[in-house]
Amino acid sequence: MSNLPAWASFLEEELDRILPPATEPPVRLHRGMRYSMLASGKRLRGCIALASSFAAAGDLRAGLPAALAIELIHGYSLVHDDLPAMDDSAWRRGQPSLHIAFDDCTAILAGDALLTLAFEVLARPPAGERALRCVAELARAAGSRGMVGGQHHDTVPGQQGLGRSEVNRLKTASLFAAAARCGGIMADAVPTQLHTLHDFGEAFGMAYQLLDDLQDREGDLAAGCGNSLLEADEAAVRKSLMGYLTTAKQAVGRLGSRAGYLADVLDRLDLGGALPR
Hints:
Strand content: under 5%
Number of helices: 12
Mean pLDDT: 91
Structural class: mainly alpha
Helix content: 55-70%
CATH topology: Farnesyl Diphosphate Synthase
CATH architecture: Orthogonal Bundle
Order of helices and strands: HHHHEEHHHHHHHH
């Protein structure tokens, strides 16, 4: 039986521990940070960091600082994505989005604070060279050459030069790849292991985004809404999804006997009817 639900609960307990108390001034800001981060989630990125640490050296807890930092970065991105100027989403993880439950200003500042807390967590003693490498990995994956750049291409009109696959790689897969690499780095993985962990994380992230696109289309069609994913495109997306899943499974195989937890993470993808028919 998979340990991932227990891992997700463990990560939420650790997030509760490291987030500022709700009673510490500025109270509204800290309440907002906790509201967004402690809502129940799958914690897939954090679980990938932990599983990658175990795959590299059999040491689960070595990857914990990286797992927490990645969850904080992902959390900040969701808070900002939900804002009216971005995706304008009113709900997140079964509750009103932060800007709805609080206000736009608190949501912006809470997102900023979550991002900076991520790097504080990594830099806390006894941080060393491995943590420094993770700081660079996460800053690159979350910045203009990664997640933020992909989101900009996805939301700002008139962007040119990037295809859908590259936008997905930047917006989604870059942080999954960083989760896998940072878990490995914190466990002192050798270069060949890091390369394979990167392959797993990126392929997982690409599959995750394609699956999300397919599920969005099915939901829109069921609701009688239009969707930009045409039927012809859908067949190509399903084929690409299968390819990325195969790449991720091959990476798990190359990592050896300790990679079973990564296989469990892969199994957590809710494929439903998404694979090619």
